[in-house]
Amino acid sequence: MSSESQKNKVVVVGAGWAGLGAAHHLAKQGYDVTLLEAGAYPGGLVAGWKTSGGRSVEAGIHGFWYPYNNIFGLVEELGIHPFTPWTRSAQYSPAGLEVESPIFQDLPRLPTPLGTFLYTSFKRLPLSDRLSALPLLYALLDFDNSEQAWQRYDGMTARELFKQYGVSARLYRESFEPMLLVGLFAPGEQCSAAAALGMLYYFILAHQADFDVVWCRGTVGEKIFRPWCDRIEKAGGRILTNRRVTDVVLKPQGESSQPSIQGVVCGDEVFEVDAAIFAVGITGMQRIISASPSLQSLKEFRDVMNLGAVDVLATRLWFDRKISIPRASNACFGFDTTTGWTFFDLNALHDEYRDESGTVIEADFYHANQFLPLNNDRIVSIVQSYLTTCIPAIADAKVIDSSVIRLPRAVTHFSPGSYPYMLRAKTSIPNLYMSGDWIVNRHGSWSQEKAFVTGLEAANAAIAYLGDGNPAQILPIEADEPHIQLGRSLNQIARNTIGALFPKFWLP
Questions:
Q1: Tell me: the pLDDT tens digits for 51-73?
Q2: Which residues form the Amine oxidase domain (predicted)?
Q3: H/E run at residue 118
Q4: CATH number for region 308-413
């Protein structure tokens, strides 16, 4: 690309982890990049903003786990230091404290999953129930994130999976389902078994330290996305907010070619493109498809309308006094049958509240359908009562300010049977690419790390198509430990052998 007029034009739709990742790398490679964000601020669901009183709020608190190698590499590249030290966490039920987790990397490393099993402190769950999870290890070996593995396990629910492998009812109720409620945002009977296996393995079981987590020392929007956007703009990229995509312009298909995208439409504006990257969530993508006759003409995009999303409620409460909270990050279960929730001591996590005279707590609820219709005062009252069950001293504190953010259909619902309808990075339109935490890929990561990785993968696909620039270097997840690799190899040999001998009775 020798001049401005000859630069290839790429439009990236959505300014979250995926979109910023794609835009940043393409801008560094000299592309004419325009990043379109439907909201008022870059960042999507993690964009922070101020209340009328000038207090920082955001749409929920997001952790950064030990395997997030690419995000940790990004902040190093940006020269910023947004994260807390590694934190310990706890789990509560209406009966009180249930589980305490150490910082696993500080303890002698044991072969997976022994470290997770031995070092996690269960307060009430009997050893016999914990041992009932052992047969489930076969499913974790069998699920290798391949296309065949997703086909095997996506059609069944996580609840069916755990029951099939003999997990005790108590272990499921007090351990596995709480993980699903705060990890996949839905109860086990509404979660794909494939997604459950992938999430549990990546965040908890693959390596001893994988459950270790740090938190942003303020809103992600302020601490990470603002300097990231500055870097994109310095590299020549444009970031345009309040631009909701309503259609795309396709070049008609010739006799020997597929239709290609020529433009991205935002109301009366049309942005000409040589390639485009969509980096929006399921709900955002469904809005675009619903408004776009061009995308509706293609089956893979029509099929996206079969996918679902989950409601989230994010609350922040300011109390009039200091309250001792043993651990900064906490997960909770059993308060509502189908809802998981988390709460965080922001005095310990966020720089802004470190010297606050009172206590600031964030409490986020997932699969929060039953809460969204309630008025703010009722929600705050419920949240305080739930927090009091976990931390009794909260009962005597007064709420002096609060924020309630309702997020309908905010996060991906990995429901049973949803896998065939999820898009791949490369679409039938050769210069239109997809990214986000719901896009099918083989990297093996989840959540924010997966979104960022798929953004880089989409940028690399655009570079390969347009033929200019260097691809982004994507760090792989840590390799399986030798005994896991051996187990998976033996399992695959057995599958191939039995499949050859009894093809009619063996699933792929």
A1: 777 777 888 899 999 999 999 99
A2: 18-462
A3: helix 114-119
A4: 3.90.660.10
